[in-house]
Amino acid sequence: MRNPLARFRDDDPDCACDPEFDDDRLLLDAAACPGGGDLAAEPACRRTAIAALADREAAAVVTRTDRLERAYEGEAAALLVAAGRFAERAAFYDAALADRAESDPLAAARAAVGRAGPVGELVAETGLAECARRVEGYADALRPFVGPPVAKARVAADPPPDAAFAETRELPTGATVRVYGDERVLRTYHLEPVEHAFDASALDALAEAHELLADGAVSGPSAVAGTDSERAGSAASERAPGRAVREVADADAPVESLAAALRKHTRGYGVLADFFADPAVSDVFATAPVGRNPLRVTVDGERMRTNVRLTDSGARALASRFRRENGRAFSRAAPTLDATAEVGATGSDRGGVRVAGVTDPVSDGPGFAFRAHDATPWTLPALVENGTLAADAAALLSLAAERAAAGLVAGPRGAGKTTLLGALCWELPAATRTVVIEDTPELPVAALQRRGRDFQPLRTESGDGPGLAPPDALRTALRLGEGALVVGEVRGEEAAVLYEAMRVGANGDAVLGTIHGDGGAGVRERVVSDLGVPASSFAATDLVVTLEAVSTPAGKRRRVKTVEEVVDGDRFEALFRTDESQRARRASSGTASAGGNAELDPTGRIDRGNSALVAALADSGESYADVREALSDRESLLADLARRNRTTPAAVVSAYADRRPS
């Protein structure tokens, strides 16, 4: 059946775009068009689009070829729609001007503005005058979001108009980033993926190679689960993009770059791999509806807008992949998602990313928040070095973890609770077997295992996928052997898991976890009143560490706010706490505490011999004074490692192997 919109390009030999409406979008198939659907550069293609909009509006105009898709949205689409309305209505009064509006709406607007009579009224009523007033030319007016069809995102190639250039950086994926604007307003993180620098022949090769993959012409061999054949099939699947490119590319084509781009978009997470190849990027936000909202990022703590949008189909593909890889439901029946993904790319040190998602009916389609795990796990010396806590406080936490204390790390979201809990995992004795219970993996289990630590992860279910219920996870952990227990986040049934382990002392080693709360009293209220843990069980807690995030001239900073011991089950005594007045006095006298965190100071309770926790940490035959000496030795070690910047897991493990027994 003939496309009813085809009449708009029948009489123009310079344009072969085939227009068709898809809901609120006008699609132009430009595969056979000599102008390629470039509305900014080709007046003939512009005429086809504007003529199709004469009696129907669109929220976006999308032109497609085999190698490239351009999406004209926002003010660009508004200009095209206004030109279509003006051309259709002005034809009765000035046919020549209406005809000009279809191919050159900016010139037509300038000619109509100020004219007396219906034409002058129409150019204002249709909005064409206002659209034309805001721009200088078509490169400014019709700035599309562009991308090859294989990509699930579209990129605005041109920088923001009149934007001040701030800096540039090259990423390991081959992408280029330019930052525009100043820090007084929201700046723009302008990403140019490597495939957007490909010439026409390279884009043709990319499209042809993708077609080969889609047809299965170069797919890897089938695999039998759990066998060497499965591993071989997986490796072959990873090599398939390179083979597809080599089959279609010319001798002078950038084969490696083409293969990397194809692999990124078919085997990886597309443009997310580019963002997380930048070590300064910690978060990427895709706000629903994703097709209309550019991605935003957090770069070194600064929120920025970007020039990138996910496509609607790209967001759906991501949702499907997260469901498949995490075994979690994500649909209208289960419209929230908490998962992890390996978003690493060739040449990048970044890997694990936590994914939070929402979709219909609680959101207008899929929306996501992606947060990168730190490439290098944090250690206590690293947290001393960056001022999160002082060396003397770190020494207490280190000895408490080593000597089987039961502790909670508290604070609001984003305060660094999981970071500190992960650092404490390195303080557990090297010979200790540790079971880690999490619903979403965030702790550095793989890094600990690579350094010879015996860490067994257990995944708890959260109602939307496979895993153990928290009580079953505890029973399983106890059957897996004596040792330490680490619970990623205490927020529901995990409380019963954690406190049953603390109460019975079943594992015989440290029991650690994180919880939302502010200070010991607030944590007890949440655990006992909100989570239903008996007060007698909470009494098994030895200490509560509370963190906070504070704003400084250099940006947001996370720090330990208090370290409290639990006395008689319901009373909290601070062993270390922030004191702004002490900070001012110490700064003026030059006696800031070790580690660069002058706000966190000892309260003197340990030195006076009043700490129940320090007394409880004493081994058989040790006195309170012996524990204080061990704390002093540990403080010196941690401060020395921080001072010499020996803070990586490898350096810390090596240093701990040489330290004298505590």
UniProtKB/TrEMBL annotation:
Domain named Bacterial type II secretion system protein E: residues: 349-546
InterPro entries assigned to the protein according to its UniProt record, in alphabetical order: P-loop_NTPase, T2SS/T4SS_dom, T4SS_GSP_E_ATPase
A Pfam match: T2SSE
Domain of life of the native organism: Archaea
Spans annotated as Disordered: 221-242, 583-605
Comp. bias intervals (Low complexity): 587-598
Family stated for the protein in its record: Belongs to the GSP E family.
Protein name: Flp pilus assembly complex ATPase component TadA
Gene: tadA
